[in-house]
Inverse folding.
């Protein structure tokens, strides 16, 4: 029996960060390389799981049209999963997202509908809801769908626990839909309540693709603040500088939200002794080349 693409979602590498960590504290930072998923990001996990579970419940069937608001990675992952499983996909996103993201969605056959930068993800979510109400398709709704965090409860959390042999002390994740941090927290806290769960959000005014500081009325319904022990506000420049350092000093080519999460993990490693800190590198850097964030003049 030969495997299919579905069989290669998850089980991503967990690698030691070697040169960026303050060695004096004895803490270890481990990076989970989610860009190794078939569609290139951590969002492959919930995208596939949400479709599979909706199909098992009879909520959708192949040939149906799916609608989703996205800032990029979930859209690409859903477009891949839809192509694989026989669904049509309509994706709504702000028009300031990178060209690579838009082109990737189109390559998988998705229809892309853009809202303005000013409308942002809030506007994209509102339009997606309107389209569903008009009967244009079915929305999986990553922001309120419990299958989003459950994908990580059943895969990301157990993988990290096994790979660290239960020695993990801190888990760090950027927060967008919050599915990754919610589901992984749920699993790790069941295994060891002492594991510290640290979320990363942009500071006021920062624009970091893939992570958000949501207005209260748009806070994802799947988010439970009790599952997060600490939140670190991240500046855009710090996230971008760390992202570039990851590529230059560690060979880890990732996006800006991964830079923000890594910056937070490195901060923790300098604060605590003999910790085992795991952070999510949620996608690959080639998804952001057209934005100029890797240009030499931007590096410090």
């Amino acid at each position: 029996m030969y495997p299919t693409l579905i069989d290669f979602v998850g089980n991503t590498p967990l690698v030691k960060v070697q040169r960026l960590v303050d060695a004096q504290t004895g803490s270890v930072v481990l990076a989970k390389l989610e860009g190794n998923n078939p569609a290139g990001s951590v969002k492959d996990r919930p995208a596939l799981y949400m479709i599979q579970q909706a199909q098992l419940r009879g909520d959708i069937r192949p040939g149906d049209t799916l609608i989703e608001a996205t800032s990029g990675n979930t859209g690409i992952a859903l477009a891949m999963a839809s192509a694989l499983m026989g669904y049509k996909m309509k994706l709504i996103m702000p028009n300031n997202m990178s060209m690579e993201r838009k082109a990737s969605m189109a390559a998988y056959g998705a229809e892309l509908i853009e809202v303005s930068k000013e409308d942002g993800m809030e506007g994209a979510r509102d339009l997606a809801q309107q389209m569903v109400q008009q009967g244009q398709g079915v929305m999986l709704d990553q922001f309120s769908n419990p299958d989003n965090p459950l994908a990580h409860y059943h895969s990301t959390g157990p993988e990290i626990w096994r790979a660290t042999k239960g020695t993990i002390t801190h888990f760090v994740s950027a927060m967008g839909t919050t599915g990754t941090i919610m589901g992984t927290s749920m699993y790790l806290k069941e295994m060891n309540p002492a594991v510290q769960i640290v979320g990363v959000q942009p500071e006021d005014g920062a624009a970091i693709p893939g992570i958000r500081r949501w207005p209260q009325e748009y806070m994802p319904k799947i988010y439970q603040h009790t599952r997060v022990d600490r939140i670190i506000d991240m500046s855009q420049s710090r996230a971008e500088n760390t992202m570039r350092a990851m590529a230059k000093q560690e060979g880890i080519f990732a996006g800006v939200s991964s830079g923000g999460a890594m910056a937070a993990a490195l901060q923790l490693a300098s604060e605590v002794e003999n910790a085992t800190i795991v952070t999510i590198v949620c996608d690959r850097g080639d998804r952001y080349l057209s934005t100029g964030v890797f240009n030499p003049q931007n590096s410090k």
The longest strand covers residues 88-94.
